[in-house]
Amino acid sequence: MSSSSDMDPLFANPSGPDLINGTLDDDLRLLQSSPAIDAGNGPLLPEGAGTDFLNQPRITGIEVDIGAIEGFIPATFALLHPGLDPNGDENHNGVSNFAEYATGHDPRSSPPSNLGLHVSRDSLTYQIRENASDLSFRLQRSTDLKTWMNLAEGVDFIKSEPARSGGGVEYQVLELSDPLSTNLFFRQVLESNQ
Ligand SMILES: [Ca+2]
Ligand SMILES: [Ca+2]
Ligand SMILES: [Ca+2]
Q1: Architecture per CATH, 104-192
Q2: Which of 52, 60, 124, 165 reaches 20 to 30 Å from 69, CA-CA?
Q3: pTM here?
Q4: Under 8 Å CB-to-CB from 169, ≥6 apart: which residues?
């Protein structure tokens, strides 16, 4: 049905609690950012295939998905990285597994140490995992690295362009309102809300 066969389809839990593929406890729902989403070919569906494996509509979004179940569920740390400790540091770079997950990186690889956060004279760029249901995220500023204030839209910044998204990650550029008034430091706070 498609040629993307060597990519990880990102099933929610392909082997299930019994750790065996192909048994009834498998969870073959797709995770958000799965390459299988909308990657099928509707016209090739058999006649009368109006529903998926769960008796839900066979085509949602812009195209049929590859696999038995249409649609996707939001990624969470536990679903994407089963067995990994969110507070651990699998790649020993001083950044927690959860912070790397939250910014759309793989905690087992070597993400950039700034996790995609860039500050220039008048703008701030960051990236964040899209629609993660277990993630609470805010940006903060400080003049002394002791007291931190949350950035407020319309006060500290405006969004001059909509976020770009790709592969389950959102990329946002913020235009800073008053960039030269003082020495400013920025940080992102990435917390699990589970
Ligand atoms: Ca199983
Ligand atoms: Ca679809
Ligand atoms: Ca790390």
Answers
A1: Sandwich (2.60)
A2: 165
A3: 0.76
A4: 33, 103, 104, 127, 128, 129, 130
